[in-house]
Amino acid sequence: MLTSRPHGLPRAENFRLEQAALPSLAPGEVLLRHVFLGLAPAARLRMSEVASYAPPLPIGDVMPCQAVGYVVRSNDPKWRVGDQAVAMAGGWQEYSAHPGDSLVRADADLAHSTVWLGALGTSGMTAYVGLREFGLPRPGETVVVSAASGAVGSVAGQMAKLLGCRVVGVAGGAEKCAYVVQELGFDACVDYRAPEFEALLRQACPQGVNVYFENVGGKVRDAVWPLMLRDGRVVLCGLISEYNDAPEAGPGWFPILAKRLHLHGFILSDHLDRRPEFLREMGQWIREGRIHPGREHVYDGIGSAVAGFVAMLQGGHLGKTLVKL
Ligand SMILES: NC(=O)c1ccc[n+]([C@@H]2O[C@H](COP(=O)([O-])OP(=O)(O)OC[C@H]3O[C@@H](n4cnc5c(N)ncnc54)[C@H](OP(=O)(O)O)[C@@H]3O)[C@@H](O)[C@H]2O)c1
Q1: How many whole angstroms separate alpha carbon 244 and alpha carbon 9?
Q2: Which of 52, 186, 215, 242 to mutate to test the pocket of ligand 1 (most atoms within 8 A of CB)?
Q3: What residue numbers bound the domain in which 52 lies?
């Protein structure tokens, strides 16, 4: 649980591990035993005292995350003991109780449990909604994706490739860039830590950029901004470079006017009605092997959640960060 609010990067003393009794179930509720937790950067925003897309997490509350697990008790006839389900609001804990209607069935025949937290979970759906609703990439266009090796970016880039685009990733370091090109199939990937980053990005996007899928902000955004083309779309999904520090001043707005840019901030929870369509299409792509679920970094045991979370915020992993319980 959250015990104090961090300044900068979270530290172990901001959290406490507690034993609690199992929740009792109201009519229509289901008790889930978590098997994997899916850690996500947005939880850092909830730790601050300033409201963001959601109110600050109260001190003493369980840290939020998605979780996949098995039904161990059910007051909902649609769920039987042993069914596998995903809880959007599972939290950093071993069990959680939810109204049966809020759970998503995780079909083990379609994908391994962990994929239901990644490409078929919140991360994949964020990429899907961002592109389908706001990025609207057309065949032949250039799409740039930041945090390209991460859970959301890896799906966004692969999806843009499937839609016929030239896709350029941005990631931290040569190993991540090689993964993005060789395993995920992006056309190119540029290391934002390289001293000549801006020039390399320009070279990788010789026609300019039609769609920017923005996950990080800061210097990456500043380098993409002048490359945006007329009628370009900026899908503002996240700004992780600013979650631990004060926000930086961004680039000027004049290009939005002159280039008729479309800048869309979005939060997935406003678009959950698209889940059936997402599961149909992404499920098909995964089944056919056209979307690679991506690598995973798995921590062992509830006690490792803090270490996993802090490492993830610093770019310590390839792909989705998970905790196995
Ligand atoms: N709008 C929504 O509803 C929604 C939903 C889910 C996620 N998101 C956002 O999507 C973004 C990606 O989330 P994710 O779950 O896929 O996380 P992730 O990419 O798996 O992990 C975070 C990544 O951010 C990169 N990063 C960290 N600090 C950075 C910095 N200062 N500059 C540049 N890159 C940095 C790291 O990659 P490098 O090693 O490459 O730096 C790291 O791999 C986050 O901003 C998250 O908040 C938004």
Answers
A1: 5
A2: 215
A3: 12-117+294-324
